Amino acid sequence: MPVTRKWLMRHALITELHIITQQTSTRLTIVWFRQDLRITDNSALSEAAACGAVLPVYILDDINAAEWAMGGASRWWLHQSLTALNQSLHGKLLVLKGDPLVLMPALARLVNASQVMWNRCYEPWRVQRDKRLKELLQEQGTQTRSFNGSLLWEPWQVLKEDQTPYKVFTPYFRRGCMKAAEPARPLPPPSRLDLFDPLPALTEPQADTGSLQIGGRFADAGIKALQLLPQIAWDGGLQQRWQVGEAAAQRRLARFLENGIHGYKEGRNFPAKEHVSGLSPHLHFGEISPRQVWHEALGAGLTGGFENDLDCFQSELGWREFSYALLFHNPSLPRRPIQARFENFPWQKNSPPLKAWQRGETGIPLVDAGMRELWQTGYMHNRVRMVVGSFLVKNLLTHWHEGEDWFWDCLVDADLASNSASWQWIAGCGADAAPYFRVFNAVTQSERFDANGAYLRRYLPELSKLPDKYIHTPFTAPDNILRAAGVSLDDNYPRPVVDLKESREAALLAFKQTQNHQLY
Questions:
Q1: 423 a catalytic residue
Q2: How confident is the model at residue 24 (pLDDT cuts 50, 70, 90)?
Q3: Fewest beta carbons less than 10 Å away: which of 2, 79, 199, 273?
Q4: What is the CATH number of the domain that holds 393?
Q5: In the listed set 207, 226, 245, which residue is the last one of a domain according to the structure?
């Protein structure tokens, strides 16, 4: 959808922006950007703008993140997103790398900030860090305020009647979310923003290093200094696939509501069709808020039989909310199964099949196409995610941690809540999980949802000349068909690493053995 004058009027950013190079009599507020890299509907930014001068800051924190530091694809996205945000802020975004527990109190003292504001995050490591940071700032007399900028409902707002968290999605969404207060209307961008330039107050020891001295400590500063882009140029497919930043997120939403949401309920199952929103990375990095998406969808005027498409789309936003609620109430979600009977499940150590899965060389076309889409674009169609996940944990009996970690590194929308909840769902060990006997047959799924092989041919060009009858199962094609299509099994395309029927039976036996253990 082109950026029309109407679109620009609806999504215009700050109308009045001033740069302040020295402290004034107005209060100075540091706004700490995290997973809210936008100007519109940014509660912390809007509140700070109303209070006086604003110093916008982003800190890359790999220290407290530990094992959940961002993967390669996410770091690529972050580089682009910070660049876009910095442009919206006229180049005045202060970008640092290090421990916020050290940097933020020192920065607040140095620039004489009266308060620090941010929008809340819900990952366990961030919750712990932010709690400690509040204590440190308050001890030195700097006020703190936090807001909801990432969710439709806070995790503690949607509870069962007995005030315990939901463990099943449908009642969570239908009885909890849909009967709760309507999500707040999105805020417009600040009409006026007085940005404080801190550089005169900071020491630059060496201009070529990009480092700054804050409170006696040197910190890498500037987007380039974060070194987020890959050293080896593997990101060409990402550059072709994505436009990053707040304006790009708004355009993608507009295109989806104009062209993609009609027929969404059924169309979203077909990986070759344009019936998915593609908003997940924009939502994860906060380039667009879920409140914006929710209310824009409500205002799209879906009638005449398309109401089910809207409801289905809302439920997908609901699954994102459910994942965050699960993570908030179960901080061990990323590593420990919610269902305790899976603690000692006999996962297999099968390195060669795992590597074949990661490379998209399992010999099962839909699995391979999905894994190659992931590597090339940093994304994978949701139905295909379920298929490749089921294949890994059930046909290969490989621990879901392996899939979780691979997705964490390769997805541009890698989100700790959604990634953890979804892998536990497909493994059958989480809340509202797929039952142990639900094993997605990758061939059946391929034949049903990609009948003419359009998706397969897009990501498996070596199979592109196979007729529709055999593209889903090249290992069953006669030799003359394979030769005519230029396919040589074990040469330019592998045979299956596992028999689907036999591996399914082995999985059912292994998973059934868990049924004698306590469910929760």
A1: yes
A2: low
A3: 2
A4: 1.10.579.10
A5: 226
CA distances from 176 to 159, 167, 169, 298 (A): 7, 12, 10, 19
- Does residue 296 lie within any of the structural domains? no
Alpha-carbon gap, residue 336 to 486, rounded angstroms: 46
Q: What is the pLDDT of residues 455-482, one digit of tens each?
A: 999 999 999 999 999 999 999 999 999 9
Respond yes or no: is residue 125 known to be catalytic.
Answer: no
Q: Is the pLDDT of residue 433 over 80?
A: no
Q: Which of 179, 209, 226 is the last residue of a domain?
A: 226
Lowest mean pLDDT among 5-14, 150-159, 413-422: 5-14
Residue 52, both tokens: 């006086």
- For residue 330, indicate whether it is catalytic: no
Residue 68 designated active-site: no
Asked if residue 208 and residue 352 are part of one domain, the reply reads no
Over residues 69-79, the mean pLDDT reads: 98
Does position 431 have pLDDT exceeding 80, yes or no? yes
Mean pLDDT of the chain: 91
| CA-based nearest residue to 94, from 31, 29, 44, 15 | 31
Within-domain flag for 220: yes
From the list 284, 283, 301, the residue with the least C-alpha distance to 292 is: 283
Catalytic residue among 154, 269, 296, 316, which?
Answer: 316
CA dihedral 240, 245, 249, 250 (to 10 degrees): -130
Following DSSP, what letter does each residue of 103-151 receive, concatenated? HHHHHHHHTT-SEEEEE---SHHHHHHHHHHHHHHHHTT-EEEEE--S-
Catalytic residue among 400, 406, 408, 425: 400
Which of the residues 77, 118, 406, 423 is marked catalytic? 423
Per-residue pLDDT at 520 exceeds 60: no
For residues 205 and 347, state if they share a domain: no
- Among the listed residues 319, 357, 408, 425, the single catalytic one is 319
Could you tell me which residues come within 8 angstroms of residue 103 by beta carbon, excluding any fewer than 6 positions away?
59, 96, 214, 215, 217, 219
Domain that holds residue 422: 340-512
The tally of domains found in the chain comes to 2
Please indicate, yes or no, if residue 164 is contained in any of the structural domains: no
The pLDDT of residue 349 is 87
Measured in residues, the chain has a length of 520
CA distance 174 to 118: 30
pLDDT for residue 447 is more than 80: yes
Q: Which of 7, 347, 361, 447 is catalytic?
A: 347
pLDDT band, residue 202 (cuts 50/70/90): confident
Q: Are residues 211 and 351 in the same domain?
A: no
Looking up residue 49, the CATH number of its domain turns out to be 3.40.50.620
pLDDT per residue as tens digits for the range 280-305: 999 999 999 999 999 999 988 766 66
Question: Are 219 and 355 contained in the same domain?
Answer: no
| pLDDT at residue 4 greater than cutoff 90 | no
> Is 259 among the catalytic positions?
no
269, 382, 447, 462: the active-site residue: 382
